[in-house]
Design goal:
- By secondary structure, this protein is α+β, with helices and mostly antiparallel strands.
- The protein has two domains: 35 residues; 37 residues.
- Helices cover 42% and strands 22% of the residues.
- It has one helix and four strands.
- The strands form two sheets. The chain has a two-stranded antiparallel sheet with strand order 1-2. Strands 3-4 form a two-stranded antiparallel sheet.
- A hairpin with a 6-residue loop joins strand 3 and strand 4.
Length: 74
């Protein structure tokens, strides 16, 4: 049977491992989000029908001509 100090050391190692693994997972998620490349396309505004370049990887973009928000699945 472990003594009080042995239990504390084991608990400290387990907590450290959990923190390290969770930080590694979070870092990979952030890195994946930052690696999304822009997908620039020429689109027509849904409202004024003027053409403009937009990043379609985003969920919405404002028209530079009329200022309305164009929403699309990115």
């Amino acid at each position: 049977m472990k003594t009080g100090i042995g239990v504390l050391k084991t608990l400290a190692v387990v907590i450290t491992a959990i923190v390290l693994v969770s930080n590694m997972t979070y870092g990979k998620k952030c890195e994946a989000e930052n690696n999304v490349k822009e997908q620039i396309m020429e689109i027509a505004c849904h409202y004024c029908h003027e053409n403009f370049s937009a990043d379609v990887s985003q969920s919405h973009v404002n028209c530079p001509h009329c200022g309305e928000t164009n929403e699309f699945s990115g």
